[in-house]
Design a protein that fits this description.
24% helix, single chain, globular, Aminopeptidase, three-stranded antiparallel sheet, alpha+beta, eight-stranded mixed sheet, 2 domains
Length: 233
């Protein structure tokens, strides 16, 4: 199996096991860290195990190879194609990751920035992001007049690879190159650890896909980002 196959399960059973809640055939991140979960295999037993980890009414995000099939105890909420993209050029071809005045304004984000990170997340909807997601890796941001206007960070980690995630920019500050600047710095730090960057993006987000392709990312596979809710009793 490739390290990026069944990537949520692989992250939670390898490099990020410290954040895992596990029951038999399923595992998930601690709820305040991320709402992502993985199944050892997509079987009835997998969903039964996952149900033991979730509370009634809770939303869970899965990455599935095939469209979701109804399961006892779970309600389908939403799904959509989600390309997984991997940086293929190699660190030697990456060039200077960041330069100029904007790069000098990059800040590391931490616990004190959580309210601003959550506000930006709610506005831009970059994907699953919770109050403790920043604990999974380095998160960087850019502020303007004290307001957080862009951020990007590291989320899932599997052997040899680290995910670039939560890339988002306030709508009033688009077109300034902030996403590229932040991604370049995040990627540089991944390269410095001897790892390869990868990311996930919604298929309909063509603006983001275009940026990622210009940076050197190429589509590896396309999965189904699937949201399900544990049925209320």
């Amino acid at each position: 199996m490739h390290p990026l196959d069944n990537v949520i399960w692989q992250a939670l059973t390898t490099r990020q096991a410290e954040f895992a809640q596990t029951c038999d055939h399923a595992c998930r991140f601690e709820p305040e860290v991320a709402s992502l979960a993985g199944l050892r295999q997509v079987t009835a037993q997998g969903y039964e195990s996952l149900a033991k980890l979730a509370t009634s009414g809770e939303l869970v995000y899965l990455s599935l190879e095939k469209p979701y099939e109804p399961q006892p105890g779970w309600d389908f909420v939403a799904a959509g194609p989600m390309p997984q993209m991997v940086y293929e050029k190699g660190a030697a071809n990456f060039g200077t990751p960041s330069s100029g005045a904007s790069a000098s304004e990059i800040i590391e984000l931490g616990p004190a920035d959580i309210p601003d990170m959550m506000e930006l997340k709610d506005l831009t909807k970059p994907g699953p992001f919770s109050r403790r997601t920043h604990e999974l890796g380095t998160y960087l941001g850019i502020r303007r007049e004290g307001k957080l206007v862009a951020m990007a960070g590291q989320r899932m980690k599997v052997p040899g690879y680290t995910e670039v995630s939560a890339v988002c920019t306030h709508p009033d500050h688009l077109g300034q190159g902030y996403a590229r600047i932040l991604m370049a710095e995040i990627m540089r730090r991944i390269f410095d650890c001897g790892e390869i960057p990868f990311l996930h993006v919604r298929e309909e987000n063509q603006r983001a896909i275009s940026l990622y392709e210009k940076l050197g990312f190429r589509r590896r596979v396309t999965s189904q980002l699937t949201v399900i809710r544990k049925r209320l009793h």
